[in-house]
Amino acid sequence: MVRYAKRMEQLTQSDIGDLLKLIAQPDIISFAGGLPAAELFPVEQLRQACDAVLDQIGQVACQYSSTEGFPALREKIAQRMKDKNNIETDADHILITSGSQQGLDFAGRVFLDKGDVVLMESPSYLGAINAFKGCEPTFLEVPTDDGGMNVEALEKILSTTENVKMIYVIPDFQNPTGRTWTLERRQKFMEVVNRYEIPVIEDNPYGELRFENDTLPALKSMDPKGLVVYLGTFSKILVPGYRLGWVCASDEILSMFNFIKQGADLQTPTVTQLEVNQFMEMFDLDEHVDVIRETYRHRRDVMMEAMETYFPKEVKFTHPDGGLFTWVELPDYINSRDMAVQCLEKKVAYVPGDSFFPNGGKYNCFRMNYSGMPDDKIVAGIQAIAEVIRANLK
User: In terms of C-beta density within 10 A (0-12 exposed, 13-18 middle, 19 or more buried), how is residue 211 classed?
Assistant: First the structure.
């Protein structure tokens, strides 16, 4: 009989895998995945960048390269982090990864042993929960409201809990809720973190997709002790198919991520790094981000208006300032996982909310994505969900 490692008992089929199967069905109106709008991918420009790379440095592009990543691309990322996030860094503090999901996997392997405690927002990103599960940690959920993580609750946990090894957060347009931390909450959070000296994983895939209000400083920009590990990605601002992300961290921490990267896959593919670097040299990435940001803002508005029009008054939902998601809360007695089956019968999909709580137990909420569907399908899908909700009201 085949005997597997005990850690495999912690892993179950991810809802993400099921979602990707769902959205592949052409007749489904899907609010489930966090997919960018495929019609906005700059395919022709990418083709030109690809041709330029293969024509000019094809042999280099097809060869192995360093674990850290292509130097020119790391320099561009460091400059972009300074321009967009006010983070003072350089290429030597950047590691290129195969998507930011790989950064999450590495974070768990760098910081967590079996039984160690990881703190997360409640709710939090299910991809991070699944990435950390393989390390067999104890998950503690920190209460979260519209302003972000409750810092008083965080400090109480830190003062009374042994073996807290890291904190995972998404301060900008959080997945799944769409919430953004206030400046005051960020400052107080970093005061607590610096006092207890706990590493923080700051996941920021959506930060450039702000629709309104001022950009807020990244936690990494308020990090004098080098405790914050910043994860970024090109998936939401260019294309996800390249699977290109990065880690920005202090010397000591980044060296640990480098060790894990060497054992995992040696390096992120050379050709994809060079093509994205070439795209940024030939074209204006900011111009492209402006286009997708405006499209997502419009689709956010369409979804908000439809939910305000058709959802019963008993339903609450967030109004995000950016990103890809809104979070819906139903009356306590409605199970969103059961209701999802009823919605699928009407050819509409969303993600049940219990997946986003590390320790489960909350079934009356769900996540909705507005970036991937056109206006008419957004309205039709919301109308269908509203019908199902009304059928479940007492």
Answer: middle
State if pTM tops 0.85.
yes
Instruction: Look up residue 70 and give its DSSP letter.
Output: -
3-state SS, residue 327 = strand
CA distance 166 to 259: 19
Quickly tell me which residue has 């959506």 as its tokens. 206
CB atoms within 10 A of CB 255: 11
Tens-of-pLDDT digits for all 394 residues of the chain?
888 777 777 666 555 556 556 656 778 999 998 889 999 999 999 999 999 999 999 999 999 999 999 999 999 999 999 999 999 999 999 999 999 999 999 999 999 999 999 999 999 999 999 999 999 999 999 999 999 999 999 999 999 999 999 999 999 999 999 999 999 999 999 999 999 999 999 999 999 999 998 999 999 999 999 999 999 999 999 999 999 999 999 999 999 999 999 999 999 999 999 999 999 999 999 999 999 999 999 999 999 999 999 999 999 999 999 999 999 999 999 999 999 999 999 999 999 999 999 998 899 999 999 999 999 999 999 999 999 999 999 8
Q: How far is CA 10 from the centre of its chain?
A: 22
**DSSP structure class, residue 210:** B
Calculate ∠ Cα 27-32-34, nearest 5°.
115
d(CA 374, CA 295): 10
φ, ψ for residue 44, nearest 5 deg: -65, -40
CA distance 141 to 357: 8
CA distance 366 to 201: 24
